[in-house]
Amino acid sequence: MMGIVASSFVPTAFGHGLGGETHPPVTLDGRDVILSIDISPSVFDVEDPERYITINLKNAKSEAAVEHVTYAFEMIKDGKQIFRKLFHDDLGNLTIKTIYDNSNEIKVIGDKSPAIESWMRTATEPVIMTGPIFDSGGLYEYKVEILTVDSDFNFLDKRMELVGAISLAEHNTFQVTDSKENTHNVNVISYFDSVNNFKFDSNMISFSMPFDWNQDFEQLSVVHQEVRIAPEFSELLHTKYEAKVNDILLPAEVVTIDDYSLDGRTVHMVLNREDLNQIKEHAIQKSDSQMYFELGPGQGDGFPLEAVTPDYRYRVFLSWEPEVITPGEDVTFFVKTDEIFTDKTNKNIEYGIELIQNENTIFNKRVSGSVNTGKTDSFQYNFSPENVGTIKFRISEIEGFSLANVNFLVAINEPENAKFPIVLESVSASNPTNGKYLVDLTWFPNILSLGESEFIMSFYQKDTGLTTGDIAYDFVLIKNGTEIHRKSGLATGGGTFENFVFVEKEAGDVTIRIENIGGTDEYVEIAVNVAPEFPLGVSIILAIILISIVVLSKTKYVTNFQIKT
To answer: What's this model's pTM, rounded to 2 decimal places?
Structure first.
């Protein structure tokens, strides 16, 4: 048998590719060859026990397969050998079908090579292995030794050995509880190694992953992690995110947002070799064997959000004012559209705007806009209290193209509830110094809306904290600088209330002003927002809560009086 001179060792190629690895060319009998290995599917799914391993040896120049290859193939996970077997393929393209089961034994089904006890495909099926092969995601190390090439009986004098590692993406689902005690799923997909120590605390997600900071990064492609956020988890839908690894803040370009590929939001964290080299010195001070990830809201507004249509025709940018959206206020959305691969001529276009919540369309309109102009198209909308949560902002069929669509997720926040009673200090209209009165003001429903509202007032002497006794006042409501309501009253024993019915034209910003207190020029005022509408059921609940607050407030002052005497 003619021996073929080959290298007995090839440098390790820990490229940690997602589901696959391609080695650099090595010399085999005067020709350069390339070995590649792949695992498919590349994302671990506990519900799918089947995977395929393919090993391919080809000529680096002609890309023709090297035939009659016998492989000694070993796979290792977490330092433990999973299997070591001999395999053969006449065409050099070895396929192994693996089926995970709960047994403790690796079994192989296939034919045997006539030259050596190595497994090979049958006439109809690839080689099949069953047993505890792929039981989790993470990093799988391997060693491939090439024993024969060109002929079943043409054994190499020196075995060619190649070692490397493949990342089988691990899909983890974690349940977290938001500030309202609602439970949400957060998915973390690691394209490098297993995720551990997942935590969620105050809008911050953290987890760890094994990582050798002492390795040669030149043999590594990227470290890629995905965090998938359910669309209803509005507390975690920020316009900007920042990420840290081992307490080091990562560059902004490492973190990207994808609202289109899946239902919900996907936040990608992708570190390349340069990123890793830049932080290595500081990261290793925290740990030389772990990556500790943190993902939370970033500083600033993070605008504009950016998305590319599936047909790669357009890049679309979205921003809005105000940044924090609450019901009852006008929100202006700004859309900018650029073509990607054309001559980018300025022109007018049409596209659809659709606002979707819980699979229901709350707004849908075809609008005119522009592309490649550097200008933004604007669109205004006023969300109601029923829209609190997540809205899908969909731009569709740009210029009529069916695949020219993008999605953005927009969070509609609950208005911050006022802490009642609100204590207001009076001021004098003729003297800029503070006056001598305190006014406790409470209203319900807590979120003012169209319909009847009640305003409860209590008057106190500022210097003593005691009630004023009977005191006169004027209750005034002002919108856009114009009085829409005025009523004079007398607070018997220092306490009183006023009712007012808001109609549609009075929705929006309104100033509550209580003036001419005690016949003086002293007054208090506060700006509020009147929402277009509000659910009746919520109003009733808030009314009950606020009545309790008012009772407790009055009790507080009685207690103070008793202590002082």
So the answer is: 0.55
